[in-house]
Design brief:
Elements lengths: L2 H7 L2 E4 L6 E2 L2 E2 L3 H10 L3 E6 L6 H10 L8 E4 H12 L5 E4 L2 H10 L10 E4 L7 H12 L3 E4 L5 E2 L6 E2 L1 H12 L5 E2 L5 H11 L6 E5 L2 H10 L3 E5 L18 E3 L6
Parallel strand pairs: 1-4, 1-12, 4-5, 6-7, 7-8, 8-11, 12-13, 13-14
Antiparallel strand pairs: 2-3, 9-10
Helix pairs in contact: 4-5, 4-8
The structure holds magnesium ion (MG).
The site of magnesium ion (MG) has 8 residues, from loops.
């Protein structure tokens, strides 16, 4: 498929953030212009991230500061997808969310019934304010048989230096401690996120393009959910390490600047 066919065939463009639009705190050169060209063509721009340590509002602030945000844009995180999943499958169930306070507020505002004393459902999000006391309580809820849901599967979160432990690493920790693994993981590459995005933005997967730098999350997510996929080589993936993955994107570009 050519870049032109991809552009013509899609109305909704889902953008991964780190490695795709910026690297830590530096925008990818030409990214702002590429996003502006898409908006001029009437395409919807949505920022889609697995990182559940921040809220959509916090991401919007960062995207504005980096000069990437435009009118009509939206952010959708794995925490947003998880909240929607809870409302459609576990509405009115007492739910404990292991997350930073602003993210817990997102669940509360969405209508999830938060309960930290005797929850029926436990959500593992990316809590960068994690303490031993929180870990101990979460482990006890799991051991007690609560429904177990994780926001996303990433083992590590990219930084300028050594990648930080992310939710996937904590899933491994709780598996060792409690013997439990999540019954559902909501974020990329899993279908919960795909279904939620299609509903939230009213666009069928066949007219949606996922743009990202990771083959095993971004591109697998797009392919598994019937979307078009665009791999950019500005982040984790290189032409050399690409060969180690079974996932094939529809189009490959050096960076989003070529869009
Ligand atoms: Mg990325």
């Amino acid at each position: 498929m050519t870049k032109e066919e991809l552009l013509g065939g899609c109305d909704l463009f889902l953008f991964d953030l780190d490695g795709t639009l910026y690297l830590a705190d530096t925008p990818v050169a030409g990214a702002a212009e590429a996003l502006a060209r898409l908006r001029e063509k009437g395409k919807r721009v949505v920022y889609l991230t697995n990182n559940s340590s921040k809220t959509g509002t916090e991401y919007e602030k960062k995207l504005r500061r980096l000069g990437l945000w435009g009118a009509g844009d939206a952010v959708y995180t794995s925490a947003d997808a998880t909240a929607e999943y809870l409302l459609s499958h576990y509405a009115k169930k007492r739910t404990h969310v292991l997350a930073a306070e602003p993210v817990r507020e997102v669940f509360r505002a969405a209508g999830v019934l938060l309960d930290d004393a005797a929850p029926e459902v436990c959500v593992l999000a990316y809590d960068t304010t994690l303490t031993f006391a929180k870990m101990k309580a979460f482990n006890e809820f799991l051991a007690g048989g609560a429904v177990y849901i994780a926001t996303h599967p990433d083992d590590v979160c990219p930084t300028d230096g050594v990648p930080m432990p992310d939710v996937g690493s904590f899933i491994a920790l709780f598996a060792r401690a409690s013997g439990r693994t999540p019954q559902v993981v909501c974020g990329k590459p899993y279908p919960v996120m795909g279904e939620c995005v299609a509903r939230a933005f009213g666009c069928p997967p066949s007219r949606t393009c996922m743009v990202g730098d990771r083959l095993h999350t971004d591109i697998r997510f797009g392919n598994a959910n019937g979307m078009r996929t665009l791999l950019v080589l500005s982040g984790e993936t290189t032409r050399e390490n690409m060969k180690n993955f079974p996932d094939t994107p529809d189009v490959i570009l050096e960076s989003v600047a070529e869009l």
